[in-house]
Amino acid sequence: MSIDSVSRAASTPDEPLPYADLGVSKEEYERICTILGRRPTSSELAMYSVMWSEHCSYKSSKVHLRQFAQKAPKNERMLVGMGENAGVVDVGNGLAVTFKIESHNHPSYVEPYQGAATGVGGIVRDILTMGARPVAVLDPLRFGPADASDTARVLPGVVAGIAGYGNCLGLPTIGGELVFDPCYAGNPLVNVLCVGVLPADGVKYAKATGVGNIVLLFGARTGGDGIGGASVLASATFDDEGKPAKRPSVQVGDPFTEKLLIECCLEIFAEDLVVGIQDLGAAGISCATTELASAGTGGMRVNLDTVPLRDQTLAPEEILMSESQERMCAVVEPAKLDRFLEICAKWGVTATAIGEVTDTGRLEISWRGESIVDVPPRTVAHDGPVYDRPMRRPADLDALRADSPDRLERPTDLRKTLLRMVSAPNLAGKRWVTDQYDRYVQGNTVLAQPEDSGVIRVDEQTGLGVAVAADGNGRYTRLDPYQGTQLALAEAYRNVAATGATPIAVTNCLNYGSPEDPEVMWQFAESVRGLADGCQQLGTPVTGGNVSFYNQTGTTPINPTPVIGVLGLIDDVARRTPSEFADGARILLLGDTKDEFGGSEWAWTEYGHLGGRPPEVDLERERLLAQVLVDGAKDGLLVAAHDLADGGLAQALVESCLAGGVGAQVSLTGDAFVALFSESAGRAIVAVSDDRFEQLCAERGLLVTEIGVATGTDLNIDGVLSVPLDELRAAHETPLPQLFD
Amino acid sequence: MARVVVDVMLKPEILDPQGQAIVQALPRLGFNGVTDVRAGKHFVLDFPGEVDEKTVQEIADTLLANPVIEDFEIHS
Amino acid sequence: MARVVVDVMLKPEILDPQGQAIVQALPRLGFNGVTDVRAGKHFVLDFPGEVDEKTVQEIADTLLANPVIEDFEIHS
Amino acid sequence: MVSLVSKPKVGVVTFPGSLDDRDAQRAVRAAGGEPVALWHADADLHGVDAVVLPGGFSYGDYLRAGAIARFAPVMGLVISGARAGLPVLGICNGFQVLCEAHLLPGALIRNAGRRFVCTDQWLRVERADTAWTGSYEPGAEIVIPVKNGEGAYVADSHTLDALEGEGRVAFRYLRGNPNGSARDIAGITNETGTVVGLMPHPEHAIESLTGPGADGLTIFSSLLNRLVAA
Ligand SMILES: Nc1ncnc2c1ncn2[C@@H]1O[C@H](COP(=O)(O)OP(=O)(O)O)[C@@H](O)[C@H]1O
Ligand SMILES: [Mg+2]
Other C-beta atoms within 10 Å of D224: how many? Predict the structure, then answer.
């Protein structure tokens, strides 16, 4: 087989290359030819194709995502913003925290266990690359109907994959989501959020600076797995039968190797042995070399023959595109090389010099003595195509909004409604899932699921900690992407505050259908606008995120599903607020309740109805509520707090009673159905032991209503319903085991 | 009674972390000269009467092996 | 190059949850008539030259199988 | 002989893939001891008075949990030390290593439910006179997290009968058996009460801030009380 070298490419300008099969359009191909002044070699085409794919280049989303930076509130804490592997915020005490969400949706549909496992692996390496020790994981998950046979295939595999990988890495899983909706059948959403902690002056960057510095590949060997995954698997629409339209190329994760990589890197960082570092994710070596080079001195020379291979038959194009997991690329000064290699050897990590930094402004890659790549790295990594795609408000949106839930018959027997609601798959207890996750490892988990947010201690001396929550509601976003996205932001923000932490930064994972569908593009643009405006208003900058397009079957997209992650800060984790009621505490409702059922869990569970308008969002009110919750926690005024979201007050009361093992005696004014099941935003319940918190609310102008007291062994709502806790617990906790055991 | 054996192995191009861990451990235990190890699964199925080859094939394909990443072999 | 196979099975008196789960799943998938399933491991070892039977025995006995709960069989 | 001025030194072994090693060190410190990090490749035990084999997935647990770690160089020293009376505690993966190393009988296999389980677990302390349990009340009922995928204790019935007969079951699961362990066994000890292995994680129950309570701390303080008294 002859090598398609640079000189051969120059002398065979008319040789056709299968660019279309690699997902490269004719215009894009011509653009590559213009950049290079000749046709690309097959290796160059491989690199451009993966790097210019939607997944790596954000070509359809870029024009919108800019708003996050443009509208970003000023924030002194932000050490690293969007654009790097993950954003970094200063949390004081010489420490910084980095966090980000990633999706691994399509791979998890094809091979649930490995898809989800490698999803964890990928985001963990992003966090590690920033110089941080990964300290926690959250896993927002969405599947088709709970009783669908394909859900029975996908869900257990996904959960086991996350558990198998995360547990083996020693990362506590402290929260997530579990949502069922027919729109995710064939398009499960597997998003993983990872949090890391690093010294504030220890941020690492993906840059190859310093002529003569050595480029090393370390970690696992390169194999044929996942070839084309980035451009083919990760962004190809599935056909109508729900089978992958293109041949799947599955990656298998090796968490043990990743664990060694983590410890090895942290030791290397501690001794300040790298100039730059980049993880190998989608697009593997193509991505790492071009990104490192273009962010650095500008040039790099790589000898591809030196790459340690698992499969000796790999072609250079395949080596460049391989997505083999558990690999990193570092740039090291020659004087530090020996020590670098010594640490790798200590951890049993294979490390190989594959090239060096140059000042030529070119990335030059050779193979078997021939030059096979000679490109300006920036053109691959950053100057990809940018599309301002056409947008159109969905044709059915007006009809959908006009179909208000007001037409649905409201229940008279609220006891029955309550029991059906708390056992609906979306509201039922999630222990079948979450008991598979190690929540304790590292010994710093202060709160974990089913709490409103996970809380991790980051400084054992002072008790400084962070809280993280991730939320999304595809039904709300379907009805109104702008408002729905702000509701997701508001919910995550509120969840963080409910545990006593001050929200300081935002990450997001935007899961949508095809950007080539103008209606999807409109949903996307509206969501981004909503999030950017919302973050500006709340004063919490977006520090990073991820976009996943092409989540659709045939021409039917999923409900637009932005998942918003919020990071909060808590000075002393001993002051965190749990959600469980304690016997004798008085229960207060914060905020006011309107008759809001559009997109609600009640309309969905009882009638399969999705229509009307989602609840109103008032971010100023959210901000006030959060401040009161945080200040109340700081001053030790709160026994418990729990935010109200899906399923409304009823769900929150049930959860706090079950968590505390105590009943409640509650009396409500007005329409009991609305009071119990409306999903009005900006609300929480708290439990208190004296009246100081009410005074605080009065001072701040936050509406507070005493609704009852935690006591006894029943949930008793005056004149409405009464259910023994045991019955509630059975109704709440048996559905998932019944479905998936 | 009939007994059928189904061996399930990761496809050759798929990474086998377990096999790799074993290969690397062997020299430390003083066993040199093993160049590669692949780890798979071994199922023994008992049938009361005679065995229908096609049924075993189907069982292996749907339940015992994950055809996305694994191959299997049947031995009766 | 020589290839040796080592099959490792839980001893018959040790409960095999994986095998049991498979037996129970089969009828639900429409496969009737499998009375028992035992799940074990299947290792394929490559040696560069010829294989010393005793070495394989030792490898299986010390590393691949835990004699407290498992039996093994070697097939060359 | 432990001097009274210096704190007892408790080694915590880190194998490649160990996860709860730093947690075990923290627990030793909380109980008043001085944790000493031991590396799997170490050729000596740095004069420690006791050793903890922590939880985790040594070598990925890829073959069998603990199977490869058991051959680490440091294990040769731990095994000979244990035979000579050195107190050794194996937690979860460490328990699996102790069984693989034949310092304790039996083995740990895949959970009966075939899933990883992480939950706060009730236990009864069946033996309150080992090196690691001496400060518990006999029969104390405690809560400690379990988190394992291969935590079902198995042994032949002869061995189980012997363990019961000799009173070598140190901890038993109460109010539910999380993994299908034979006779609800959560932890066992050797004949002399110096080597103890258990699946639950006492290092994750040393304070109510980060665990279900502080019931696990007593395991570490039992050891330290014993060492100081010696
Ligand atoms: N897949 C999951 N993994 C881990 N934790 C989860 C998962 N799904 C839900 N949870 C946790 O269960 C609890 C309840 O979830 P949810 O009702 O969505 O919370 P909220 O409405 O407060 O956002 C939360 O603590 C959440 O983090
Ligand atoms: Mg909440």
Answer: 21
Distance CA A578, CA A570 (A): 13
Binary contact (A168, D61; C-beta < 8 A): yes
**Confidence at residue C36, expressed as pLDDT on a 0 to 100 scale:** 92
Of all protein residues, whose CA lies closest to atom 27 belonging to ligand 1?
A175
> Which positions ≥6 away from A398 have C-beta within 8 Å?
none
Give pLDDT tens digits for D49-96.
999 999 999 999 998 999 999 999 999 999 999 999 999 999 999 999
Could you tell me where the DSSP H helices lie in B1-76? 17-28, 53-59
Helices A725-733, A648-660: crossing angle, 10 deg rounding? 110
Distance CA A157, CA A112 (A): 5
Q: Given an 8 Å threshold on Cβ–Cβ distance, is C18 in contact with D110?
A: yes
**A175 within ligand 1 shell (Cβ under 6 A):** yes
> From the list D57, D116, D147, which residue is nearest A440 (CB)?
D147
Is residue A141 within 6 Å of ligand 1 at its C-beta? yes
Please tell me the pTM assigned to this model: 0.94
* Catalytic residue list of A: 55, 104
What pLDDT, on the 0 to 100 scale, is given for residue D4? 54
Chains that touch D (3 or more CB pairs under 8 A): A, B, C
**pLDDT of B12:** 85
CB under 8 Å to B30, separation ≥6 — which residues? none
With beta carbons under 8 A apart, name residues in chain A contacting D26.
443, 460
- CA-wise closest residue to A320 among A56, A46, A53, A51: A46
- Chain A environment of D20 (Cβ under 8 Å): 170, 441, 443
CA-based radius of gyration for chain C: 16
Chains C and A touch (3+ CB pairs under 8 A): no
Going by C-beta distance under 8 Å and a sequence separation of 6 or more, which residues neighbour residue A208?
A215, A275, A276, A292, A293, A295, A296, A297, A300, A331, A357
For D71, the closest of B17, B18, B28 (CB atoms) is B28
Active site residues of D: 92, 201, 203
Mutate to test the interface with C, among B20, B44, B70 (most CBs of C within 10 A): B44
ipTM of predicted assembly, 2 dp: 0.92
A406 conformational bin, left if phi > 0, alpha if psi -120 to 50, beta if neither: alpha
Q: Which residues pair with A281 in a beta bridge?
A: A283
> Is residue A682 within 6 Å of ligand 1 at its C-beta?
no
Residue A313 DSSP one-character state: T
**Are the Cβ atoms of D67 and C21 closer than 8 angstroms?**
no
- Is-contact A251 A284, C-beta < 8 A? no
- ∠ CA A408-A412-A415, nearest 5°, is 115
CA distances from residue D83 to D66, D101, D222 in whole angstroms, order as listed: 19, 12, 20
- Mean pLDDT of the region D183-202: 98
Residue C43: which of C58, C19, C21, C65 has the closest Cα? Answer: C65
Ligand 1 atom nearest A469 alpha carbon: 27
B71 beta partners: B9
In whole angstroms, give the CA distance from residue A676 to residue A720: 10
For residue A655 and ligand 1, the question of a CB distance below 6 A is answered with: no
Burial class (CB in 10 A: 0-12, 13-18, 19+), A176: buried
The confidence band for A240, taking pLDDT boundaries of 50, 70 and 90, is: very low
The identity of residue D3, as a single letter, is: S
Comparing C-alpha atoms, which of A464, A423, A440, A482 is closest to residue A729? A423
CB count in 10 Å sphere of residue A20: 10
Mapped onto helix, strand or coil, the DSSP state of residue A264 is helix
Cα A376 from Cα D88, distance rounded (Å): 59
Angle at D169 between CA D182 and CA D193, to 5 degrees: 145
Is the CB of A451 inside a 6 Å radius of any atom of ligand 1? yes
